[in-house]
Amino acid sequence: MRYWLIMPAAGSGRRFGDALPKQYVSLAGRTLIEWALAPFLADERCAAIVVAIAADDRRWAGVHARLSGVPPIIVAQGGAERSHSVLNALRSIASQAAADDWVLVHDAARPCLPARDLDALLGRLAADPVGGLLAARAADTLKRATDNGGVEHTVDRSGLWRALTPQMFRYQALGTALDQALAAGRVPTDEAQAIEWTGQQPVLVEGSAENIKVTHTQDLIVADALLRKGMSTVRVGSGIDVHAFGPGEYVTLAGVRVPYGKGVVAHSDGDVILHALCDALLGAAGLGDIGMHFRDDDPQWKGADSKKFVIAVVGMLKERNLRVVNADITVLAEAPRLGRHRTEMRRTIAELLEVDDSHVNVKATTTERLGFIGRSEGLAAQAIVALTSLSTEP
């Protein structure tokens, strides 16, 4: 089977109590929305992902750049309410989706969806004519309050469930239900309610209580603990690269051309930062060194952009379920000076490693005019990285 994933992410997170929309809060090395998208990016059954964002959202582009292109990610215009965002997302794939295609809607603030729950939902509803949603049985004693905050009575919880996401319905049925609700001036709080208003009964598929929704800042503590329990011991690697100066007008460092009266002697572009970074990544993963994978006598790497090396290495890490936690890089050179280029270098490295730039540090030092570096005969870079191995489910 295949399905379309819709993620409404246009909310401002008013209840979250932070100037930063909660979907972009950093959690265990990724933003909240990246964690929420992760199970679907790793699922071959997902045909495409549609993310509905606010018109003035300036943060999504940075996140989007770090995500893989499989399955494809489509951006839709978010709306004032969740139902508007979902309806806009449905309309954005009208020319691609069939009427009976399955659509899953998942909250951008649910970072801990277990893979087993996604499988259970898809398996249970694959042949169902209506669809349904993940849900958890109400476990606590429930009280109905009076207007002044007193207890009116205790509610029987025996038939009560907490609605979770994803919620799964047919493309046409969901679109029609939302259209009818909004046309009647009714705003459903989730997709299942819109389906209920058409007289149909969505199926409740029992899911894990770990699939929490981050609503308040204290929820981040619980989500962080759940995510980190799926991480193995941190693996650390280091790398060093050195190149002599030669003819040229610039030096390439972290993919950035730094003007200088010299170039470097190298088979590729001689980017000491990215070469050291590759060695550090390969070392942490136990995959040898850069020379084993990109030989300096191989014509295909003649003058090559070293960003290609990093992209390839990051791909090797993904195949082994490894991801970067952080990278710390030191450049050793008397010249050129790197101060005004450092921010761009840091941003470039973060994009290559698919992490937020707060997880990358670039610094520079001299050797106090000692040795070949001190004599301005060349430059060097050292990189130290940390990796984690993520389990297939939180």
What's the pLDDT, averaged over the residues? 90
- As for the CATH topology of the largest domain, it is Spore Coat Polysaccharide Biosynthesis Protein SpsA, Chain A
Helix count from the secondary structure assignment: 12
Tell me what the CATH architecture of the largest domain is. Answer: Alpha-Beta Complex
CATH class of the largest domain: Alpha Beta
Number of domains: 2
Strand order of the largest sheet: 5-4-1-6-10-7-11
Note the main sheet: 7 strands, mixed
Low-confidence stretches: none
CATH superfamily of the largest domain: Spore Coat Polysaccharide Biosynthesis Protein SpsA, Chain A
What general form does the structure show?
Answer: elongated
N- to C-terminal distance: 24 Å
Structural class: alpha/beta
Q: Helical amount among residues, as a percent range?
A: 25-40%
Q: What share of the residues does DSSP label as strand, in percent?
A: 25-35%
Secondary-structure element string: EEEHEHEHEHEEEEHHEHEEEEHHHEHEHE
Short key terms for the protein model shown above:
394 residues; alpha/beta; Spore Coat Polysaccharide Biosynthesis Protein SpsA, Chain A; 60s Ribosomal Protein L30, Chain: A; 7-stranded mixed beta sheet; 5-stranded mixed beta sheet; elongated
